[in-house]
Structure prediction request, 768 residues.
Amino acid sequence: MVSSNNPVNPTHVKGWIFDVYPSAFGEITIWIIGENGERFRLIDKFHPKIYVSGRAEDIERLASQFFSSKLIESWNFVYKYARTTDNEKRKVLEIELRDCRKISVITRNVLKMGDYSLYEVHNCNLHGDQHYLFTHDLFPLALVEVETERTGLRYTLRDSVESVNYVIPPLRITKLHVEVAKRKKIAKLNEPISQIVLTQDNTQEMITHGEEGDKLLQLVKLIKRLDPDIILTSGGDAHLFPYLIHRAKINNVLNELIINRENRSLAPRRLCGRTFFSYGRTYYRAPTTRLFGRVHIDERNTFTLRDCGFEGLIEIARICRTPLHTASRSSIGSSMSALQFYQAIKDEVLIPRNKSIPEAFKSAYELLVGDRGGFIYEPQVGIHDWVSEVDFASMYPSLMAKNNISAETVLCKCCIESPLRIPELNYNICKRRVGIVPKTLKFVIGKRLLYKCLKEKTRDSSLKEVYNRRQTALKWILVTCFGYLGYRNAKFGTVDGHLGVCAVGRDTFFRAARISERLGFTVIHGIIDSLWLKKEGTTISECKSLCREVSDEIGVPLNFEGRYKWIVFLPSKIHPRIGVLNRYYGVMENGKIKVRGLEVRKRDTPRLIYDAQMEMIKALAVAENSEEFFERIPKALEITQKYRRRLLDREVPICDLIVKKHLSKHPKNYKQQVSQVIAAKQLMREGVEVHAGKNISFLFTNAIDKRHERRVKAELLIEKEERVDVKKYLHLLYAATANLLSFSGYTNKSVQEAVIGLHFKSLLEYQV
Prediction:
């Protein structure tokens, strides 16, 4: 069946798939943006399939119990690779369900009937919309022709997920902002709407007049007239939409609050937010507000949009075959899973409900040899000239693809005597088949390299930016693929594969360093996939020649990143003679400044300190070599003195002093009253919801009352004449300067003395 916002219901539509979601029982709704700009709503029947494996007699007995089930459309026996490590297909039970939203119900029933031990259920973790796209081999914003037939919709794909020059239809994007008539600093649900602002195509529409209920109804009419495809909010998931729903309920217009393209009102949310731990950091994700026929994107709840823009988001949605709504909120690990799920279905490998490949037994010695991570050369502390930087392009993903490292290929039982071996560990690698992980990575690596080539070749600046954002989005998938291989919930992950990648990486890195030394270079620093090489009088062509030789011998591309005019490797704060792996800064010959591990790279640095340190780095960047660098140190101290004077004269705006810290757990679970916990508790007393994983912004204050709860003030509670703790910010300023110059013996105290000395000197010169 087909319908549109036009009175005519065509039987043939050509356009781009915009949104997909389950609607009525056994049905999926698809929104198409037509070539003529119309938005069409299509409805298709969809019966997803899940699979049950076990002993043949057990699954046959299970099938006999399905005749009376109203949730099952049909069942059949088919042959699939039931486990990732299987070499041959085996007989499994295929169950076709009447509705995709009942998958979890059927899964629980099957497991219960088998006493949670007889049966394994597969392909049961896919969401209905994604299941539909996988089944029909479609993807978001794919150009398609759709014909309505008696049995459902028939698609003709006029696009390819491999395409790099695909066309995206003009999307109507509307920014929604609601101002609250708040009585205090923090807005609350029981406070009325002041005004509603919608911005589309640089045109602003404001709703300011009428009763609150009338304002909400005006919003509905305005949304209908503007007819946006994407509604962009800041905090829509956590605050804005729950607030609108609450105000609509109070004003008895909840049933009329229709922001969807479908004729359904916004529903009160039943789900709670989620706190999770990833890569050593705690995160909080607010429950999502799903729109139907439109896509709601919360700028505060999306990593991909913030880092890669709409171009990167669309690229992720296309290659992962994930609806835009989901793709905007998915973690990179979820995107990697989606790619692997699609590849598994394509290869007729069933997706396990839980990770099912155990780690092989290891002796204490094998653990000592294998569990060592990447190879590292300790940096030589100090400033260096004639240093070149080279690094491997997507090193770990390339090694995983090149060496066929995947859950089903490492330590496979079919190729025990395989000549393909992992160095140090001597693990065998399958030579009969290519694993799911390598297949997935080859596609992503190839497409990213193509985008990078197109970016270099094109002279169109806007197109260059598009290619850059797309390759950046793919880069994040490649960055996380190695860690995800060892993740406990990765369906196709394996600890042994993870250790194998580390071993191959160490071997590759060590060989590259030895080749460099053979050609006369000295390794100044090296970390996992990057090398800093020193050779006096070297030329750019020599460096590029080195990269070609390493690439040819190892089989993984080694790129020449550039040569430094000078580079500083900084020492540990505790052990001044020992270098820190990722704390350095330098200036390349093309003028590019590269900084790692300093305040300008940290999330919790206030704007004042960021500006001061960046200005110092730029002042030092004028130096052409290490000798000139030391001559410009007084200039850096003068900059520190300038910012010191601004602090003492109260010339720094409050917004430049705000510090943002991360909560790794709920405030009540902290034993120490650190600054972010104090600020979080201040917000909680005002009725704000605070969760582990959130960032807390605050100001260091200098209240007369010295109790610990008075030393900071949450940003949302700051008054006009707030007393700033100048001493604290001066300490941060001196520390930022000392960090830059610590390799030459500067400390916080010596920086402070030098800056005050400069100040006195300048006064004397002025008097003379």
User: Anything to note?
Assistant: Residues 49-125 form a domain with the Alpha-Beta Plaits fold (CATH 3.30.70). The longest strand covers residues 558-571. The longest helix spans residues 461-485.
